[in-house]
Amino acid sequence: MSVPKSHLFDFDPTYGMQREQLLAITPPEAPPGFDDFWKKRYRRALATDPRPVLRKSRLSDPRWHVLDMTYTSTGGFRIGGWLLLPREGQVRRGLVVGHGYGGRGEPDFDVPVEETAVLFPCFRGLSLSACPPISSDPALHVLYNIDRKDDYIIGGCVDDLWVAVSTLISLYPWLEGQVGYSGISFGGGIGALAIPFDERIDRGHLVVPTFGHRPFWLTLPTVGSADAVQTYQKTHANLLETLRLFDAACAATRIKVPMLVAPALFDPAVAPPCQFAVANALPKSKFNEIFILDAGHFDYPDSASQDAVHKDKVRRFFKVP
Predict the structure, then answer these.
(1) Which pTM was predicted?
(2) Fewest C-beta atoms under 10 Å: which of 92, 156, 191, 266?
């Protein structure tokens, strides 16, 4: 193990917890109306015609045909992103890849999958989907409409994921039931919220997911988006009742498809107890795996070797049968 011992933060990014303690964390109880809230949102997203528009990208890669793409999400929101199509083999699987709160400047050409159409959407308000007055600054983006549960930006981003799945299926109808999701940090939290309510997603991969265990998320010191919400709450009403509807750990208890989740023991941006609340919430199954990283959102000595093992697991997890 190479959990970082030296850092410049004014708090302990391990929160004084060891692996065994983190693996014992359980998710909080979901609030009343949790399932109805998300099922209603999903029905609206499912009824949305994505109307995708594709054009050849200025980007290129030897493994992939690269297309710039836009599609229409809920509320008429235009989502920008990229679609990668394999230069060799057929399209036999779909994969939606979510990004962290830093947004995305281009697709990940090293994504370890084959014979897969890979869609990289930029969630609303971020990167290619920037749209004033929504700020692309994570500290402000996470606050957008936070006091109105039906209009909160995080719910809109979950919609964007669901409509991304619709987009892939509209282009490749034979992918119904063969679409996976992979997301890191912000994208990991969005994935945990989306996957249990969309039966079209057949498996999910979440890396250092945020938005888990909101009571912890609102109190543990961090340099991530939670810090902005904690600061906002000091001068505004208690947000916990609203944010309980957007708890990735509560949602994860409802996931029924195979999952690969990679939480970290040390993370200054997403508190490890919140990450492990998501990972531990998954039903016990031979199809689910927790792969523990030494650190997230932080460089550490053994990161290259851990990343290599992790990438191999992802390759096997999304391998076309």
Answers:
(1) 0.97
(2) 92
